[in-house]
Every structure is written in C-alpha cells, then in structure tokens.
Design brief:
- The protein is an all-alpha fold and 313 residues long.
- The chain has one domain.
- It has 16 helices and two strands.
- The chain is globular, with a radius of gyration of 20 Å.
- This is Fatty acid desaturase family protein.
- Pfam families: FA_desaturase.
- InterPro entries: FA_desaturase_dom.
- Keywords: Membrane, Transmembrane, Transmembrane helix.
C-alpha cells in the first residue's frame, strides 16, 4: 500500500501523479546543459576559478543524472515508457556508471522495507549519528577521490565476477569479457561517446578533468550528504513521517547539493510515483492538512550534518 493513501485522497494523488514527456525532456536537457555550459565557461575563460567551478557544478549535475535515473526507476521521468527507459538508462545512468534495471530492483526493495532490517540502504543510514571526527574523515575521503576510486575498483572487480571466476592476473580475454558484461559494458560505451565529443573539439583531456574528476570527488561528496539527509539520524521505524527526512534547501544548495527536488524525500516516500517537480506541491498540501508537525524536516544541509555528527567522541 502507498503510505500516502492514509493522508491523501485518490483525487489528490492523481492530480500530482501526471507524467509529462515535455517535463522529462526539459530536465534531461537542463542537466546536460549545465554540464556543457560549465565546460564552455572554462574553455572561454580558462583559469583556476572557472576550473573549480566547472568541477563542482558538473559533480552536482552528475548527482542530477543519478536523480533523474531515480525518476526513471519509478517510471516518472517521461510519460512515454520507451523514452523513460532510454533516457533513464543511456542519458542518465550509463554516463555515471549506473544501471537502470539493476538500480530499479534494488531501490524498490528500499521503498518496501524502509528503515527496517531488510532495507538494503540501511548500511548507509545506520552509522548515523556518528562523531564529528568520523564524519569529517568520510567527507575528506569523498572530496579527495579516495571513496570514488575504491568504489570504481569494486565495480570493476564485480564485473570480473559477472564474467566468471578469474584467478590470478586477468588475461586480455578476461578483461574483454568483464567489460562487455551487463555491469560496465554499456557504461563504457556511454563514456566513450563523451570522450569522443571532447576529442572532436580538440580537448580529449576534458574527459578526465571535467567528467572523471568530478565523478570521483564532488559527486561522491554530495552523494553522501544526500544519503545522510534522506535517512541518516532519523527514527528506526515504519512511520513514514519519522523514518525519512525532507530538507529545506536554499537556491545555492539546490544548485550544488540537491538538484531536481531530491530534498523532498519524505514526500517521495509517501507517494513514490509522483514526478519530482510536484513534490513541493505535495509538501505544501501536507502542511495545509496540519501534518507539518509530524514531518521530519531539516532547515538546511548544514543542520543535517550537525544532526548526523552528534555522537560524543
């Protein structure tokens, strides 16, 4: 049962649930437009400031691609099914080394068993609250690329396991099998296209500087902050108002930390198939019904990190 049915009428849910191909196209174009615009800004005015700005904005939009893939996993990005599957997989998931069908299976299990022992995301939320020193170490590992490199290495190792048992030093054939498998094969094709586009404009190294580097650093940082904000340091409960959190994001936070209304996570868990652009409306609707005091809401992401690091040293 959709948890939101206990608080919303069928007509209210229906009014918020309409999909739109135009909305889906706009969100995908907006996300890639910010990515390409950041690269163009550096190309026109190359200096350390525009380089840093590009890495941060692109990393945030790589999170944006993950969020749009998440929309597609709920069949909410496009109204037309094949467009939803194609864009969610090839335009959003594969460039950041993600797989839409695998993610969908995993993520729907999270919705079914949120904050219970059967929740596959419990490993992300259960360590919180932690100490300030522990949180600081985690964030440093993220921004310096240590987390990203470790995860990519695990992803490659998983690809080998998908290809079959590989003992000792992998051969060229083993390598080819691993990267032609379902986990990384299409992701490599998508990244090869991005590399080819940069090569075509005479700057192949832009792929390393403005795709790989953000993916290993800023993307990992904001991905962790987003995960903490959603289910970190909340109640271990089946109450949908207590086992997840909505964070009221400022315009700067929406640009750099929480694109595409991902901060309205409590509302998303109440009715998971509502398109993201309607989640603010749902938030206002719940408050109008007098449910605001029941909702777990943070005033911003700094407050979330404070709540997540309250364990004494």
């Amino acid at each position: 049962m959709t948890p939101g049915k206990a608080f919303l009428t069928s007509d209210e849910i229906r009014s918020l649930s309409a999909r739109s191909d135009l909305w889906g196209a706009w969100l995908v174009v907006h996300c890639w437009g910010l990515i390409l615009g950041s690269v163009a800004l550096f190309a026109l005015w190359p200096n350390p400031l525009t380089f840093l700005l590009a890495v941060v904005v692109i990393g945030s939009r790589q999170l944006g691609l993950a969020i749009l893939m998440h929309e597609a996993a709920h069949n909410a990005l496009f109204k037309t099914r094949w467009m939803n599957e194609f864009a969610g997989d090839w335009l959003c998931g594969r460039p950041i080394l993600a797989d839409l069908p695998e993610y969908r299976r995993y993520h729907l299990t999270h919705h079914r068993y949120t904050q219970s022992d059967r929740d596959p995301d419990l490993r992300l939320s259960k360590p919180f609250p932690t100490t300030r020193a522990s949180l600081r170490r985690k964030l440093i590992r993220d921004i310096t690329g240590q987390t990203g490199i470790k995860q990519r290495a695990q992803q490659i190792a998983f690809a080998f396991r998908m290809a079959g048992e590989v003992e000792g030093q992998p051969s060229a054939q083993d390598l080819a099998q691993a990267f032609s498998g379902p986990v990384l094969g299409k992701a490599i094709v998508a990244n090869a296209v991005i590399l080819a586009l940069f090569w075509a404009i005479g700057a192949w190294w832009f792929w390393l500087a403005f795709w790989v580097l953000p993916l290993l650093t800023w993307f990992q940082l904001v991905l962790r902050v987003r995960n903490i904000a959603e289910h970190g340091a909340v109640a271990f409960s089946d109450d949908p108002f207590r086992n997840t959190r909505t964070t009221l994001a400022s315009p700067l936070e929406r640009l750099l930390l929480a694109p595409y209304w991902v901060n309205y996570h409590l509302e998303h868990h109440l009715v998971m198939h509502i398109p993201a652009h309607n989640l603010p409306r749902l938030h206002a609707m719940l408050k109008a019904k007098g449910l605001g005091d029941r909702m777990t809401v943070a005033p911003g992401y700094l407050d979330v990190l404070r709540q997540a690091s309250t364990r004494p040293a």
